[in-house]
Amino acid sequence: LDDAAEQDAFTEKLLVLPHSHFCYAPRGQEPAVASSPCEKNGYVTFGSFNNFTKVTDEVLAAWAGILRQVPDSRLLLKADVFGAADSRAYAMERIARAGIVPERLILRPLSREYLGEYADMDIALDPFPYPGGGTTCDALYMGVPVVSYYTERHSTRFTYSLLANIGLSDLASTSLSDYVETAVALAGNLDLLDALHRELRDRMKASPVMDQERYIREMEECYRAIWNAWESENTSR
Q1: Residue 190: enclosing H or E segment and its boundaries?
Q2: Roughly what angle, to the nearest 10 degrees, separates helices 158-165 and 134-141?
Q3: pLDDT per residue over 68-92, tens digit each?
Q4: 3-state secondary structure (DSSP) of residue 164
Q5: CB 101 within 8 Å of CB 71
Q6: pTM here?
Q7: Which of the 8 DSSP states describes residue 175?
Q8: Comparison of pLDDT for 237 and 220, the residue scoring more
C-alpha cells in the first residue's frame, strides 16, 4: 500500500493499521480440518464459496483455463444462485460459455452450516477484481489454500493481505497468467497441498489475522492518534 498515492483518492486522512484492517473470529464449534480430498478422490477439486455476483466472465474464463491444465479436476461452487431453477440455469449458461462442461462441476446452494463442505475442496480460487474477505478466512481456517489475483487497487488486495499475514503471499499473483499458473502448480504438488491443509488453521491462529488483542491495541493507537491530532490542532489556535 502506497500511503501517499492512496491518500490522494480520499478526502479524509487515512490511518493505516500496521498489520491488518480485519480480525477474524470463528463462530465456534468449527469442524476439524480434513486432509486434502484429492487423496481419496483421485482428482483435484478447485472451488469457490463466494457470492456469484463476483464471478465475472473473465473469472470464469480463468477458471476454465485452470481446469484445462489440470486433467480430471473439478470445480465446486456454492452460492445462492444455485438454489433456484431460473438463476441456476442462468449461471450454468454463463459457465458453459466459458467452456466449462457440466461433468467438471459440483454445484451447491447456500446453506446455514457450510464450513464442513470445505473438506470437499482442495484449492479455493478467489474471484477478481473483488476478492473474498470472510469467505477467504473461512477457507483458510478450514485448511484450504486460496489462490488470488490482485492489482494496485485497494479493493483487489484483501485476500493478498490475509495471505501475506500467514506467510503465503506467493499464492497471490499480480498478473492473471500467474494466477492460473499458481493454481495449476499447486494442484501438481500433492504433498505441499496436503501439508497446507494440515497447517493452515494453526497458521491462522498464530497470525495477526486472529490476534484480537493486538488488533484492538492497534485500533486504540489509531484512536489516540486521531485525538492527539485534534488536540494539537485546536490548542495551537
Answers
A1: helix 190-206
A2: 30
A3: 999 999 999 999 999 999 999 999 9
A4: helix
A5: no
A6: 0.86
A7: S
A8: 220
Residues 103-146: pLDDT tens digits? 999 999 999 889 999 999 999 999 999 999 999 999 999 999 99
For 199, residues 6+ apart whose C-beta sits below 8 A from its C-beta are 143
DSSP secondary structure code for residue 63 in this structure: H
Q: What are the residues facing 45 on neighbouring strands?
A: 74
DSSP-assigned letter for residue 30? P
pLDDT digits (tens, 9 = 90+) for 1-15: 445 556 676 777 777
Edge-to-edge strand list for the sheet holding 123-125: 105-108, 74-78, 45-48, 123-125, 146-149, 172-173
Contacts of residues 190-194 at CB distance under 8 Å and 24 or more positions apart, as own/partner, are 190/36, 190/38, 190/39, 193/36, 193/38, 193/44, 193/122, 193/123, 193/145, 194/35, 194/36, 194/39
**Which amino acid, residue 161?**
S
CB neighbour list of residue 83: distance below 8 Å, 6 or more residues apart: 109, 110
